[in-house]
Amino acid sequence: MFDDKIVISINGSSDGDTRLSALTLAEADAFITLISSLRDLCSNSPNNDELKIEVKEGSAQAILKGPPGSMASIYMDFDEVLNGKSSDYSDVNSWKNIQDVMLSEELALNAIFVHNGFTHDIKDNIINAKRFRRYGNRTRTYYKLEFFNGILTTIGGKMPNIHVKVEDRELVIDCSELVAQKVKEYLYKDFYIASWTKINAKHEVRERAYCQVYKDYSEFNKYRKFLTEYNHSNIDSFIDGMYDISNELLDGEDIRAFRRFMNLFIHGSWDLNVLKTMLVISYPFRDRKEIKNIRHKLTLIYRSNKTKLSNH
What we know:
Layout: E1 4-13, E2 16-17, H1 25-43, E3 52-56, E4 60-66, H2 68-82, H3 89-102, E5 107-115, E6 118-121, H4 123-128, E7 142-156, E8 161-166, E9 169-174, H5 177-182, E10 190-199, E11 205-214, H6 217-228, H7 235-251, H8 255-263, H9 272-282, H10 289-310
Antiparallel strand pairs: 1-2, 1-4, 1-5, 3-4, 5-6, 7-8, 7-10, 8-9, 10-11
C-alpha cells in the first residue's frame, strides 16, 4: 500500500535552483518553517505515532507521510482550515505559516497531496485562499467549569440534584440518580466538587451540572487552580499545562487519577484543539480498561464538534 503524503517543495529562488545541501538564508528560513509546521500537524494528529516527517534532496522537500487512514484526518483538517471552519488553533497556525511561505515572492514553491498514489496540487488552494484564521465561537450561551469547596447539605428533589453550602450561598447542582447515591457518604461533610455552569448572554447562571467529586483536597485544588486559569486567548500555554499534569500522573503510573483528569474534558464546550490534545495524550493508553470507555466518549464529542463546525 502506498503511503499518503503532503509534499511541499522549495524549487528555486532569485539565486537559482534550490539544493538541500546548500540552502540560502531565505531558503533555510522557509524550510525550517515548513518542517516545523508539518511537525506540528503531525503532533496534533490523534494518530501521530503512525506518521513520519521526511526531507528529500533534489529540490528541498518537506514531507509528512503515513497510512491513508492516518492521513485522512490531516486532509479533513486542511479542508476546514481552507474553508475558514476550523476552530483548532494549532492546525490553523500550522497552515497559516505554510501559507506565509507559499506567498513569498522570493521563492518558487510547490505543494501537493498524494492520496492512494494519485497527486493533487494544492498550491493554488493555499495561495488563493483568504488568510487562514481560526473560526470563532459565536454562541451566546456558554459553559464554565467551576470548583466549589463547601458542605453537602441536601440530596434529592423531584429531579436528582445536590445542594452544597458554599460560604453564605447554597448551590443547586443537577446530577444523575447514580451520582446522588454515590455522594451520600459526604452528607454534612466537607465536599469538593467540580460542576459545569451554564451562563447566558447577561452573564447570569442558568443551571449547574455535576462533573466530578474529589476525596482529596490537594487533587481538587490542583485542578481548580489549573482550570480556573484557562484562557482562550493563550491556548498554547493551557495545552502545555495539560501535558505537564498528564505526564506527572502517568509517570507516577496513577492511571485512575489520569482518568479523573480526562473526565474534566468530557463536555462539548471545550475548544476542539483541547479535545484533540487530550485524545493525543491518551492515545498510548487507549486499550487500558480504565481509559477505553472515557476515551470513546471523548472521541464522540470531538467528532460531533467537528461535524457541527463543518456544517456552519
